[in-house]
């Protein structure tokens, strides 16, 4: 359960989920690169784009969380 005012626990678990997702995507992208032996394969590029989106989402989430703390 999260604090109704700050949502602290909910935010913490959301950040953790994003961190875990980013880590898993990074590993998957690295494995795809090894299998494809090139950064320009469609599979590696797609995973890289998805990873970029998740990192941007994470950074946005962190900024909004930091703004709520001030």
From TrEMBL:
GO terms for molecular function: protein dimerization activity. It comes from the Bacteria. GO terms for biological process: regulation of sporulation. Gene3D superfamilies: Helix-loop-helix DNA-binding domain. This is Spo0E like sporulation regulatory protein. It comes from Paenibacillus taihuensis.
């Amino acid at each position: 359960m999260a604090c109704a005012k700050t949502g602290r626990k909910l935010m913490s678990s959301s950040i953790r989920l994003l961190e875990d997702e980013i880590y898993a995507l990074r590993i998957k992208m690295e494995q795809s690169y090894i299998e494809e032996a090139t950064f320009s394969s469609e599979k590696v590029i797609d995973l890289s784009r998805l990873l970029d989106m998740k990192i941007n989402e994470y950074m946005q989430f962190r900024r909004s969380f930091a703004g709520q703390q001030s």
